[in-house]
Amino acid sequence: MNRRHMLAQVLALGVAPWVAAARAQAMPNKPVTLVVPFAPGGNLDVVARALAPALEQALGRNVIVDNRPGAGGVLGASAVSRAEADGSMLLVTTPNAIVVLPRMTRTAFSLASFQPVGLVSTTTLVIVVKGSDKRFADVKALLAYARANPGKVAAGHAGPGTTNHVATLQLEDAAGIKLNEVPYKGSAPALMDLMGGQIDMVVDQLTSSAPHIQSGALRVLAVMSRERDATLPTVPTLREAGLVNFEATTATGLLAPAGTPAAAIETLSKALRKALAEDGVKSRLLNVGSVARSSSPQELLQTLQREDVRAQALAASGRLKAD
């Protein structure tokens, strides 16, 4: 292909030639894979699939969502930490997957194994029960039953060390209860067992629970955020149920392997912010219970460092244990 023909193709795509050249230099000419370290249907999967089309447009290359569940997020995070540091494989994750898990079990990665690209979204955490379960009229009834029956309420979560798990521990401490924690390989299988009656409750992100709430298969007893969620205006917070100062939410971010060139991080970060600014992406995320929250790489790093401090405290208390 001669230079004139190449220039004509670039202009036909509506991309300035110097922009195309910069992209080529910053990142290799191959698809970008978003690794979701949990099963399809969970919060991270829903967020990744809402983001992928717009990120694909912003980057000018294919973006693939690749689910790699297992060990509470360890398998997917490990794969990205070992990947070639060229910006072509990224991890869609909550802070817990990379700062909590390494303090629970031996992992091939730590916070230093990754380089932040930026925040993607924040998501409300909810307490859900089976829609037809008549035992718990509201969250106060659930907490009262749990206090009277220590270890009898089977509470599912997305896996050891996940945001859901840590929020479940926070709930136990704040409410003075003891739950029978049941770990799963992601939210989706936990919700399936909840709807099947195998467990009693699940602490979950609204993103993955929303379709089942809308269908009536699940019922929300409370949100764990500081304020009521705009998409669930009639559902009370745990603060309203008497757990003063309780707050737990999920932040989702995008990470690259450590050593990824600064030019690639800059390209990815700009593309991510552009994608999240699109009304379509904001709407898709909001429809599944998540709010677009863009940031600089440095801002995401600060968030991760704060969560790392909390993880150290939880590990020192002996509350974090691998399954």
Question: Can you offer a commentary on this structure?
Answer:
There is one protein chain. The protein is of the alpha/beta class. The chain starts with a helix and ends in a 6-residue tail after the last helix. The protein has helices spanning 3-12, 17-26, 43-59, 74-82, 95-99, 139-148, 163-175, 187-196, 206-215, 262-277, 279-287, 297-317; strands at 32-36, 63-67, 89-93, 114-130, 154-157, 180-183, 201-205, 218-223, 249-257, 290-292. The longest helix is centred in the C-terminal third of the chain and has 21 residues, at 297-317. The protein is 43% helix and 20% strand. The chain has 2 domains: 29-122 and 251-317, Bordetella uptake gene, domain 1 (D-Maltodextrin-Binding Protein, domain 2, 3-Layer(aba) Sandwich); 124-249, Periplasmic binding protein-like II (D-Maltodextrin-Binding Protein, domain 2, 3-Layer(aba) Sandwich), CATH 3.40.190.
